[in-house]
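in:
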């Protein structure tokens, strides 16, 4: 079967890596000539709404995305010519933080207090209600911590207002979370739905750095998170994988945002689950039976940000699985990741202790923090 992917980054690359053994054949559209998924499929270098791109994707039996900011109008146009998953509606909702939060509320998915902000008086009014500290975010195109500023005191207002530039904003209460976690669910066209174990996630400067799954000491949260993910996927009549990012605070879960695609917090599933998120996304999109989402023991995933670390040193770490996305080094960019998988938490800790001395100071300190916290 021919599958088209809008977006040719690492997510498309890992989708193709999972799909080639399934007998799938990939056409990938990306505006960038050096899109890293191009190594595993036919790369069409074009804008999303370019005629050549639409033509190439229309020739595929299924089309999906590795990027949630593809214009929903492009998916709408494509869906008159072929089968597109996820839908334009799911993408459009995920593209606007305000619409997303309102949808969560309508589904009884708990969220931090929030308000729409499009002028300075509205910002002051929203702060009056929500209070400090708060987070001011652009409604659209924010990712990896871009397009947001934490407001701790009145002095933070003007610099944040200037820095965000775009004034279609949302103000959210700052959540004093105990930890962050994420649930990935996969749903097929026939409505079969499966959930992966919760991933415990660690962000630094808004970028995901570590994920551990199944999240330690979160057994009571699993059923609750599954209920929230299910409500969302069923409401959107969603087909494929989606991830709901959550804050855990005082034993409760609050939703931050959802991603209508495979997600970094579930990269551990490649080695650490019976069937990975990438394979299951493709199975769902192709309307094939879904695979088991159960974990094989416990896993840790660590992102390589900016540039790949020295391979020789890391590959010598026991149990380490190496993923190099083949991307140019650039500050703040996700260029690869590694996964450790072991039978249980204690055995994983031994692998993590072996990895820590091979890491840069910042990654090592995040890993030590997670180890202490999850012990
Ligand atoms: P986002 O781009 O919304 O996924 O935010 C990236 C990261 O910023 C999150 O994973 C959190 O670590 C932090 N963050 C975002 N919103 C909030 C919030 N309302 N309260 C506390 N931390 C937040």
């Amino acid at each position: 079967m021919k599958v088209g992917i809008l977006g040719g980054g690492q997510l498309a690359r890992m989708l193709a890596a999972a799909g080639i053994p399934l007998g799938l054949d990939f056409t990938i559209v990306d505006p960038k000539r050096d899109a890293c998924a191009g190594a595993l499929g036919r790369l069409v270098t074009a804008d999303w709404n370019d005629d050549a791109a639409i033509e190439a994707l229309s020739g595929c039996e299924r089309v999906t995305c590795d990027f949630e900011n593809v214009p929903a109008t492009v998916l709408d146009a494509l869906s008159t010519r072929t089968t597109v998953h996820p839908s334009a509606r799911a993408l459009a909702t995920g593209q606007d933080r305000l619409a997303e939060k309102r949808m969560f509320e309508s589904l009884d998915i708990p969220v931090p207090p929030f308000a729409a902000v499009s002028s300075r008086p509205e910002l002051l009014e929203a702060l009056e209600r929500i209070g400090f500290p708060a987070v001011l975010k652009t409604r659209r195109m924010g990712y990896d911590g871009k397009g947001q500023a934490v407001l701790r005191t009145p002095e933070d207002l003007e610099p944040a207002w200037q820095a965000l530039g775009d004034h279609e904003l949302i103000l959210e209460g700052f959540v004093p979370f105990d930890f962050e976690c994420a649930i990935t669910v996969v749903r097929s066209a026939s409505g079969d739905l499966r959930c992966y174990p919760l991933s415990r996630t660690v962000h630094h400067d808004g970028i995901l750095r570590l994920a551990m799954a199944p999240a330690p000491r979160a057994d009571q949260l699993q059923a609750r998170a599954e209920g929230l993910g299910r409500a969302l996927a069923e409401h959107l009549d969603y087909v494929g994988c989606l991830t709901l990012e959550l804050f855990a605070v005082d034993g409760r879960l609050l939703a931050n945002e959802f991603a209508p695609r495979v997600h970094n917090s579930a990269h551990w599933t490649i080695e650490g689950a019976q069937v990975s998120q990438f394979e299951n996304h493709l199975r769902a999109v192709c309307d094939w039976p879904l695979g088991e989402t159960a974990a094989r023991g416990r896993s840790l995933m660590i992102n390589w940000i900016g540039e790949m670390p020295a391979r020789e040193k890391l590959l010598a770490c026991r149990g380490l699985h190496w993923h190099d996305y083949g991307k140019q080094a650039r500050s703040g960019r996700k260029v690869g990741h590694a996964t450790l998988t072991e039978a249980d938490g204690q055995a994983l800790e031994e692998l993590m202790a072996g990895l820590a001395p091979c890491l840069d100071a910042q990654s090592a300190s995040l890993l030590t923090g997670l180890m202490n916290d999850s012990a």
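note: Residues 112, 135, 142, 145, 172, 174-175, 180, 203, 206, 245, 256-257 surround adenosine monophosphate (CB under 6 Å).
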